[in-house]
Specification:
552 residues, mainly alpha, globular
Amino acid sequence: MRECVCAAMAHEACSTDRDPRGSFRGLTANLRSAGVSFLHSVRAIWRYMPDEFSAPPTALKAPRATMSVEEAFRVVFPGVMVAMFMAAADQTILASALPAIAGALRGVTDLSWVVVAYLLAATVAAPVYGHLGDTFGRRRLLMIALAIFTVASIGCALAPSLPLLIAARALQGLGGGGLMTTAQAIIGENVPPRERGRFSAYFAMLFATSSTAGPVLGAYLTEIASWRAVFAINLPLGVIAWALARRIPPSDQAGARPFRGDPVGTLLFAISAVTLLFALSSAGHRFAWNSWALYALLALALLGFVALVRWERQRADAVIPVRLLEQPAILRSDVVVFFFAACLFSTILYLPLYLQLGRGVAIGESGLLLLPITLSMVACSAFTGRRIARTGRVVQFPRRGLVAAMIAMAVLALSLPRLSTIAVLVLTMITSAGLGAVMAPTQVIVQHAAGRQALGAATASIAIARAIGGAVGVALVGAVLFVLVGRGGGEASTTLNAALEGGASFIAGLPQAQREALAGDLDHAFRLVFAMIAAMAGVGAAIAATVPKPEL
């Protein structure tokens, strides 16, 4: 399988003149081989760990004692760390590679769906993995999610067109949603409650590092090899993560209760979420802003979510944790995470695009310039985690962090044409530092409010909020951005669309006057983008101020 991926990348790098239809048969054979390998992998996973299913469905096992902090860090954390790194980094690794993908596959209008499809599929999958993990064992579900994610990454690397790439990204998201949910639930299962705050800080640092390192890695792989390499890299990482996950102790409650599925709830949630995201990402180009079709889709999504809430309230074993949202601490914390994710993913995805097109920065340099953002976010996450462990106070950190992000983005929106590239990066560092203070406290608040019995459902609610928040943020910002740069008409619109497909190299070949006019148009468009991110951070800060204070 490794040779297939390498051959595909070498073909693109060295012989782009060949008719793509000539290699389609080979790509199809490779994908068929990958699918067979995937089925064999899943069957092998289910043969492992038979002890998890040795007890009758109705016989409860004696609860296993939780590990010490040192033992959990040594045995459990490595197994979930690589899996979470893959899931978090893959949501942002395309940021620096998107212009190259747009140029190779010719699809600027639907480009945001390369990211949105992954986030949306992860959103749908997260509660399903939480539901299945409580019944069949979280370690087993983690390994299945790793198999799906890795095989789908191969499909992405071999995709010959944008629609097939989007489809492979959706399949990849079905695995990625399980990586996040099961990894966090495994920590809650094996770590004493008083120590979960420390591991939540570790997760926040890992999430910040992998999310912001994704564009750097994507830029490096795109420049030295191809955009296909950003997907092929998941093959060795998936093998390592799968081997480490086998070291995690099996769940002591796997098979302790009969499985009761909730297909109606899952279907309602999937349809509602897909409809909402399709409407948001299509506004302004597929459908006019005042189109009845757009409003019909939004109304359909709203009705679907209302029906979902009514259905899940009647279910004793609902796949979507609606009843948990009746607790103010969980509901408001999830809303805070929603706006946090919308700000984070919009910033990480569109900042490299602005640096490349608006400031003429090369692909590799745009990725490297995000390193200060990584460092500031990691440093703030580490500081927040230590303060929580030392003082037991959690509620003030998300509010202060989102206020700092709002102020920095507001300054960017107001002063972008007059700011140097260094000033833009400094303000973005302040934004990322503020966002770094959000995840660890909200994780602690939600898990503490839910209790051990609802740990999986509570973790799934955070994953849902983060995934759908990131998808909505990216879709909204992307829709507005592409409306501004692609639908203005005339020569400026043609030049902007060509710049989106050609990248910094296209801009470098323009006459000086045309480059200055293009920079002005891009500054205008991205000022509105940064203003939208500031507004989302402000709403999140206002809601964070209302989260009840837990008694830790």
